[in-house]
Write a structure and sequence with these properties.
Number of strands: 6
Distance between the termini: 43 Å
CATH superfamily of the largest domain: K homology (KH) domain
Strand content: 25-35%
Protein name: Osmotically inducible protein OsmC
Strand order of the largest sheet: 1-2-3
Number of domains: 2
Largest sheet: 3 strands, antiparallel
Pfam families: OsmC
Oligomer: single chain
CATH topology of the largest domain: GMP Synthetase, Chain A, domain 3
């Protein structure tokens, strides 16, 4: 399978990028005196990591018939000091909220995503130390 995107310059530091499902995302960077209109490319990488793993986890939990009231992920990346700057360490924290959470199954769903299914996670492991943690918030 191949994916193809087209990214078009919109002036200044703004770019519009499509994806295979024909949705668009705006990308730019901090420039003094200009309003940000999109995400930075590096921040989008962290969002891609969360999205990829999150989709896996939700799918696995549905198959396990595990219900949660809320699920979110926080992803933090530490950049190298020298150019080209890239993420050398990445922390992914999974937050699950609900009453009577099945922690064993949730742990298993996250483990399957991290170790087996999430391709973006595997790509990150090629250049970064990826650390994961799970937090349970019982109501």
């Amino acid at each position: 399978m191949t994916h193809k995107i087209t990214t078009s310059w919109k002036g200044g530091m703004l770019f519009d990028s499509d994806n295979p499902s024909n949705h668009h995302v705006l990308m730019d960077t901090d420039v003094e005196g200009q309003k940000r209109q999109g995400l930075s490319p590096k921040a989008m990488m962290l969002s891609s990591l969360a999205g990829c793993s999150g989709l896996d986890v939700v799918s696995i939990l549905e198959k396990m018939k595990v219900e949660v009231d809320d699920f979110k992920m926080e992803v933090e990346g530490e950049l190298t000091e020298e150019h080209p700057k890239y993420y050398k360490t990445v922390w992914v924290t999974y937050h699950f909220t609900g009453s009577d959470l099945n922690e064993e199954r949730i742990n298993r769903a996250v483990q399957l995503s991290v170790e087996k299914y999430c391709g973006v996670m595997e790509m990150f492991r090629q250049f970064a130390d990826v650390k994961t943690d799970i937090k349970f918030h019982n109501k």
